[in-house]
Automatic annotation (TrEMBL), chain A:
Species classification: Bacteria, Pseudomonadati, Pseudomonadota, Alphaproteobacteria, Hyphomicrobiales
UniProt-listed Enzyme Commission number(s): 1.2.7.12
Keywords (A to Z) from UniProt: Oxidoreductase
Protein name: Formylmethanofuran dehydrogenase subunit B
Source species: Methylobacterium brachiatum
Superkingdom of origin: Bacteria
UniProtKB/TrEMBL annotation, chain B:
NCBIfam families for this protein: one_C_dehyd_A
Annotated InterPro entries: Amidohydro_3, Formylmethanofuran_DH_asu, Metal-dep_hydrolase_composite, Metal_Hydrolase, Metallo-dep_Hydrolases_sf
MF annotations from Gene Ontology: formylmethanofuran dehydrogenase activity; hydrolase activity, acting on carbon-nitrogen (but not peptide) bonds
Gene3D superfamilies: Metal-dependent hydrolases, Urease, subunit C, domain 1
Alphabetically ordered keywords of this record: Oxidoreductase
Domain of life: Bacteria
Pfam families per the UniProt record, alphabetical: Amidohydro_3
Domain Amidohydrolase: 40-478
Name of the protein: Formylmethanofuran dehydrogenase subunit A
EC number(s) stated in the UniProt entry for this protein: 1.2.7.12
Length: 359, 543
């Protein structure tokens, strides 16, 4: 096992020991990233629950654009396979979704199921920037993407009228037999997602039209359901008071670090995601597949699920959690097993400290 | 280790047992009186001893349940975690579900709606519910692959093979259909569907789809009959849908989910009145049929259902005003918050109808207590419902607080019946266990799993059934004096069913074309679960 403490290579046991001492001293630890398989996410929650840590994820910007809108107004959603199989009209909102693998599947075939089967598929664009040339009708989003979506919603609702490109866009999507509104929540933002859901709800008064979000490179789509079933709450939650407290502002790890509220971090990235800048500013333990000695105070290399070992991951194409066997097995430990060892050693430490005589 | 639960009032209707006596346990099973000294004596004097409760229809896992937590994060109250489990008191979480059921003396619970497309996530979630044995029903009836087979009249064997493959791949315990064809019809613009209406594009009807699934379930030998959620849930006149569906079963075994929501006879003004008598009579006349109740309880809840047609219609009644509809792969789903307004006329009538069906039942073993958690209300209300069934004066006190419509449009106030403890055991133990085909549960005869609930006998049945004095799971005490004392994992009950390799190959081709990923991506492999836990327990098919 590859492991480093303060930049020096060491063995697993020493690294886990160093991580335990770092965490045992912590009064406000955070487990962040959670770019990992379901077993590791579960192990991270178990550890957080037992030591009173809080949790934040690598994809929180997009996740919160979704969750904030969801808990306020709800949603009308479809899936990638349903969009490919049924949609005769797809409105691509923003520039980011044009780079999603799904776009190729949507442009490469006609719908095959449902009442639109066999029809040509029309792509429409809103705020696509230079990508808009691929669409049958493309409207810029000068003034902001969220505002542009709000305007579409106003046209659909009848609050706006007129012979404008955006009115034409709305007329085209409203005439669809099965429309899809494709977006990237991190790009569209919380207000924009809320507007888009309202737009979809309005369109369903007369036809069928659903939103579909493309996922980021992180595993937030796995973290959210696991967090919900384990704790009853979405991520960005804290367990310092022994009840799950969900607070997207308070448990934003970047904010916490900047405010000096954190005294230890476990950075969990068994699948690669961008390393946050704040990591260097706090005592840290990194469990990562692409390990570097200088990444954190304690670095432990873990297997990458789907490559070094099997694991359950978000499968964007299937829009589901699926099992990925190891494609090139190695004997690197799983992140879940390292987190489990940390939990066990920390529990032993707590028992030992409780049994010391009081003075 | 040999144990005896001594001196309790043992209630086991399957053995016509309702008297003070002993229950002997060894190696996780109930055994004959051993004739030797026990290693452990559990004093149950003054207590009632029953088999562990068995739940057949409670939404405790899956995509809709996840969404409901995200939509309504404050629906349940969280309390500080107990020793031994960091999230057992986190309202609505898996740990809370397991511990709350266990404290009520339940030891087995089944999630009734697992879409095959999301089987792995549902099974992982179920596996995180501690203390209980779990299971899930595989949902079919709206998927294009099945509807294509039917449209092309490929015959019963093809349907049977696809059902068997779906159950085997998802590791379900049984099969459920939810407004068969309704989700498909919704995606193609329909707003309502009855038994013989044509489903757009496919030219099929609910009757045809359900009929083919009824046959498939019998041919495969699934112990649990097809679990049916009929058309037109919650609408005035839904009693017609219920009775027509029962007739369409043509004598084949059939289970009706949350029957209360269909016991709504239409009135002239567009409203409804209780059809409890009609429903109860229909079940009495058809020994092939069973039902669970879907009892309504007052207060805020959230409705979760794969019946997207119904949930779309229900969105306008959302309270608070937000809702999620997912036009998902095959089934779709909807999450709509709902308030059963305390003392409101509609909710009061719904409340009365559920109780009425149970009190009119000629065979409590075919009448299962559920609230269709959380659709009629939370399962935590079972003790209160039991109290109302057992105590006429308690019912009268509650009815006195409700609007007159309860007496005008239901027969509840005139019903004198009080359930006995034996009948409660039929409603919550032997009935559901028989229904699921779990021969070693729901009773205390030798050979049964030593899943046992011991309650202090108390005329306040709500208190009695809320916090058991002692609960044994496989002979191990998990609850003492209403608190969890041992955080052990149960197992997930999963049907052992052979699937046909030719159908697997066909399905793989079909799925790869549709999803860009084949049958493997639908699998629920052991490797996805904790290596040191024995997560699944095989349940055999009927001979």
């Amino acid at each position: 096992m590859a492991a480093w403490v303060k930049g020096g290579a060491t063995d697993a046991d020493t690294a886990i020991g160093a991580a335990v001492s770092l965490l045992a001293k912590a009064r406000a630890p955070v487990i962040a990233g959670l770019s990992a398989d379901v077993a590791a996410i579960r192990a991270a929650y178990d550890l957080a629950g037992r030591i009173g840590a809080s949790i934040d994820t690598a994809g929180a910007v997009g996740t919160y654009a979704e969750l904030g809108a969801l808990s306020r107004v709800g949603a009308m959603t479809s899936t990638p396979a349903e969009a490919v199989g049924r949609a005769d009209t797809v409105l691509v909102v923003g520039a980011a979704p044009w780079h999603a693998p799904l776009l190729k599947r949507l442009t490469g075939a006609k719908p095959t199921r449902g009442r639109a089967a066999g029809a040509d598929r029309t792509l429409l664009a809103l705020g696509a920037g230079s990508e808009g040339s691929k669409a049958a009708l493309s409207c810029p989003s000068a003034g902001g993407l969220a505002e542009a979506v709000a305007e579409l919603r106003a046209y659909a609702k009848g609050h706006l009228a007129g012979d404008t490109p955006r009115a034409e866009l709305v007329a085209r999507i409203a005439a669809a037999q099965y429309g899809v509104l494709l977006y990237d929540p991190a790009e569209l933002g919380e207000l924009g997602v809320e507007m888009l859901q309202g737009f979809a709800m309005e369109l369903n008064e007369t036809t069928r039209c659903f939103t579909l979000a493309v996922a980021g490179p992180d595993q937030d789509r796995a973290v959210v359901p696991v967090a919900a079933w384990l704790t009853g709450q979405a991520p960005r939650s804290g367990f310092g008071r022994r009840v799950p407290e969900h607070d997207p502002w308070r448990f934003d790890v970047a904010r916490q670090v900047a405010a000096g509220e954190v005294d230890a971090v476990i950075w969990l990235a068994a699948l690669p995601v961008d390393r946050p800048e704040w990591l260097a500013a706090v005592p840290s333990v990194a469990l990562v597949a692409e390990a570097e000695a200088s990444l954190a105070d304690v670095v432990i290399a873990v297997g990458r699920p789907g490559r070094d070992l099997g694991g359950v991951l978000w499968n964007e194409q299937r829009a589901a959690l699926t099992y990925w066997p190891a494609s090139a097995p190695t004997d690197l430990p799983s992140a879940a097993s390292v987190l489990g060892a940390l939990t066990e050693r920390l529990a032993e430490g707590r028992v030992a400290s409780r049994s010391e005589p009081a003075c | 280790m040999l144990s005896v639960i001594r001196g309790g009032r043992v209630v086991d209707p399957t053995a016509s047992r309702d008297a003070v006596g002993d229950v002997w346990i060894e190696d996780g099973r109930v055994v004959e009186p051993a004739g030797r000294e026990p290693d452990r004596v559990i004093d149950a004097s003054g207590c009632v001893v029953m088999a562990g409760g068995v739940e057949v229809h409670s939404h405790i896992a899956g995509g809709n349940v996840i969404t409901s937590r995200l939509l309504l994060p404050d629906l349940y109250v969280s309390e500080a975690s107990p020793e031994g489990h960091p999230f057992a008191h986190a309202g609505g979480a898996a740990g809370w579900i397991g511990s709350t059921y266990a404290r009520m003396g339940y030891t087995t619970a089944v999630e009734p709606a697992m879409p095959p497309t999301h089987a792995l996530a549902t099974q992982l979630e179920l596996a995180d519910i501690p203390l209980l044995d779990r299971g899930a029903l595989t949902v079919m009836g709206n998927d294009d692959q099945l509807l294509q087979l039917l449209r092309e009249r490929q015959g019963g064997n093809a349907v049977r093979d696809l059902v068997a493959l779906s159950v085997a791949t998802s590791r379900g315990l049984g099969v459920k259909c939810i407004n068969a064809g309704g989700a498909s019809a919704f995606k193609d613009g329909a707003l309502r569907l009855s038994l013989d209406d044509e489903i757009p594009v496919y030219g099929l009807s609910t009757r045809q789809i359900m009929g083919s699934l009824l046959d498939a379930v019998e041919e495969i030998g699934v112990p649990h009959p097809l679990h049916v959620h009929c058309n037109n849930l919650g609408l005035p006149g839904a009693d017609d849908s219920f009775v027509e569906t029962l007739d369409a079963a043509e004598g084949r075994r059939i289970h009706f989910a949350h029957a209360q929501f269909y016991a709504y006879g239409a009135t002239e003004g567009g409203g409804f009145r209780s059809a409890a008598e009609r429903i109860a009579q229909a079940i009495a006349d058809n020994p092939n049929a069973t039902l669970d109740i879907g009892q309504v309880v007052f207060g805020q809840t959230v409705t979760v259902s794969l019946d997207i047609l119904r949930q779309f219609a229900g969105r306008k009644g959302a309270k608070p005003k937000k809702w999620v509809l997912n036009a998902g792969d095959a089934e779709g789903g909807g999450v709509v918050p709902f308030l059963y307004r305390p003392r409101g006329p509609t909710s009061s009538l719904q409340w009365a109808i559920g109780l009425e069906i149970m009190l009119l039942s000629t065979d409590p073993e075919r009448t299962i207590l559920t609230t269709d958690h959380p659709n009629g209300g939370p399962f935590t209300q079972y003790p209160r419902i039991i109290h109302l069934l057992m105590d006429k004066s308690e019912r009268d006190r509650e009815i006195a607080t409700l609007p007159g419509i309860v007496g005008e449009r239901s027969g509840l106030p005139g019903l004198e019946r009080e359930y006995t403890l034996s009948e409660i055991a039929q409603l919550t133990r032997s009935g559901p266990a028989k229904l699921l085909g779990l021969a070693d549960r729901g009773h205390l005869r030798p050979g049964a799993c030593a899943d046992v609930a011991v309650y202090r006998d108390d005329t306040n049945r709500t208190a009695m059934f809320t916090a058991a004095k002692l609960v044994l799971k496989d002979g191990v005490p998990i609850v003492e004096d209403g608190e969890v004392v041992e955080w052990r994992a149960g197992r997930t009950l999963s049907l052992s069913v052979e699937s046909d390799p030719a159908m697997a190959k066909r399905a793989d081709t079909y799925l790869t074309d549709r999803f860009g990923a084949g049958l493997d991506s639908f699998a629920v492999p052991d490797a996805a679960f904790d290596a040191d836990a024995d997560t699944f327990e095989a349940v055999p098919c009927r001979a």
